[in-house]
Structure formats: C-alpha cells, structure tokens
C-alpha cells in the first residue's frame, strides 16, 4: 500500500485557487490525504475532476457555509485493494465563528476494507488557534476520545502542528504527543531523515529541508505485525517552484530561509509504503 499525506497551504480560504500542478506529484498512491484544501476555490471542480481522471474516488469535508475553514480531502485509488464503506467528519468550524469548535481538530474519517480486512483511515489537522499550545493539546485529546470509540484498526495521517522533540517548551512537543497516543494503542511513525515544515535551503547539504517534523502517521500497533513501513519527506514541489517563493540571504548557519506564499504547499509531502512481510 502506498500513501501520500500533504498539507497544500490554502490557509482557511485565503488562497482562491488550488495549485493544479500538484496532481503531477501524485504517482499512483493508493491513499491520498490532502490538508488545508479550499473546497470553495474557483477551480475546485476542475481539480477534483482531474483527480478522478487519475482513477481516484474523492471524499471531502463540507464547510461550504463557512467563509474561513480548511477542508480535508481523501482520495482512494479505484484500482487498489481498498474498498470504501462510508465517510464521516466531526464539525470543526461554524459559520457564526462559534468558539466552541476551536477545540475540535480538522478531521475526516473513512471506513474501508483492505483485502477484506476492515480499518479506518483518518485525515487530521490540529488547528493553530488563539490560546497557545494548550489549545492544540485539547484538540488532540478530542481526537483521542474519538479513537477510543472506534473498534477497528486505524491509520491516522496528519499535520499535528507540534513542536520539535527536544524543545524546552513542554506543552506540545513530540514527547507529549507520543504519551497521549499510547493510551489508545497507537504508534507514531515518521521519516528518520529530514523535516516537514519550516523550509530552508541548506547550502552545505545542497538540499531543501525544514526544521520541524509536523506530519506523521499514527497507526494501531496491531497493524505493525508482519509489515515493513518506509517513510520519507519529499520537498520536490518547493524545489520545482522556488521562483514563487522569497529566498533570504544566507545566515550564519549557511541556511537560506524561504518564505512560501499562501497557495503554494509549505509542507513536505509525506510518502509512505506499507509492505507485508511474508
């Protein structure tokens, strides 16, 4: 099974047009999870139709009544061994800007079968809201409460807007996240190399990379049995679209910080391969 998770940076409907050429970076993955999608963008229908032409069924949240919201889109390849049974999402935005939804993460749940084995795919984004890191932890607690009610194995793919593991700020680093998911039998997987957000060009390494690993796969521990998982963060889109960004002069660490405009994906794509070990 091949999986792609990617925050495409439409930033709550600020961007009015989806970048059509991100479809060129989709290479037959079985599951695609796109975050920060603007379903109200002027070319959303064209985007979704072109994705369908690549043999995908599309499932997306519906916040059409909200002027400021991010949608999540999950696409499942029709020729894969994954059969979707239904989809659901918990309301995370309100057109009246009701603050009670600030503690609800962006979410989309897909119930499916893979080789006739039932499981759940979840796309998740922890929102950045006023109130600091405690707000983010509250959203994660809400997600944990939902997972406790799910009786099937689950794969969670998302942007958790966490801080790095070694930071002295303890409210919302990777250690906090790992401790929370243990309570529901989940394991976090991420690439051993590179990061997924905060992109710079590193002169000494001659490559693009971030400085925080915010995009992760969480999965039920039972799904690790007799399976090999390979993960990588891919910055090819930024590399190919650097002319659309603002590149700063090198700093004392031989880094060129990059400002990525809204509408251009500012996260690395998280690519995953899950193989059964015979």
How would you portray this structure in words?
The protein is an alpha+beta fold. The protein has a single domain (2-194, 216-244, 267-276), classed as 4-Layer Sandwich (Deoxyribonuclease I, Chain A), CATH 3.60.10.10. Helices cover 15% and strands 34% of the residues. It is built from 4 helices and 16 strands. The strands form 3 sheets. The protein has a 6-stranded mixed beta sheet with strand order 3-4-2-1-16-13, covered by helices on one side. Strand 6 and strand 7 (117-125) form a beta hairpin. The mean pLDDT is 95.
What's the arrangement of secondary structure elements?
Layout: E1 2-7, E2 31-37, H1 44-53, E3 56-60, E4 71-77, E5 82-88, E6 106-114, E7 117-125, H2 133-149, E8 154-159, H3 174-182, E9 186-189, E10 200-202, E11 207-209, E12 215-220, E13 227-234, H4 236-240, E14 246-247, E15 255-259, E16 269-276
Parallel strand pairs: 1-2, 7-8
Antiparallel strand pairs: 1-16, 2-4, 3-4, 5-6, 6-7, 8-12, 9-12, 10-11, 10-15, 13-16, 14-15
